[in-house]
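Query structure, 136 tokens:
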């Protein structure tokens, strides 16, 4: 699996946690600087960020990918839209959480979220809502 990291560097412990959660080896990490210029339009900056990954259209659609999102919510939202457009589906993402009571602060992998499964479940709920709607 290829981990594309738009966030802070990951530790060896975090990589082991990812492998344990996914059942897959992290074969490669691609670290992409996700800093943006808040005075410039965001979309072109995100497109350039994703271009720096260096994948062909075929690689975006066929490689086993895991994404560590940038922490800035606007960047993460636009990044997900850009990735979906290139991949044809929503990628799985990492969620980290602080380890309580540790100084200096450290983070552990909380979960790997399958965004495509979240989207598919939401789509099913939309269909259920329509079926139960009594309006004509």
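Result returned for the query:
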């Amino acid at each position: 699996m290829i981990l594309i990291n738009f966030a802070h560097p990951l530790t060896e412990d975090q990589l082991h946690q990812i492998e344990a959660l996914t059942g897959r080896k992290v074969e490669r990490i691609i670290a992409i600087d996700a800093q943006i210029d808040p005075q410039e339009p965001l979309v072109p900056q995100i497109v350039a960020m994703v271009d720096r990954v260096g994948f062909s259209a075929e690689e975006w659609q066929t490689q086993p990918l895991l994404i560590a999102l940038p922490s800035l919510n606007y960047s993460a939202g636009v990044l997900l839209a850009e990735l979906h457009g290139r991949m044809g589906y929503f990628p799985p993402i990492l969620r980290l959480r602080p380890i309580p009571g540790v100084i200096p602060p450290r983070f552990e992998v909380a979960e790997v979220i399958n965004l495509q499964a979240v989207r598919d479940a939401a789509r099913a709920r939309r269909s259920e809502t329509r079926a139960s709607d009594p309006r004509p």
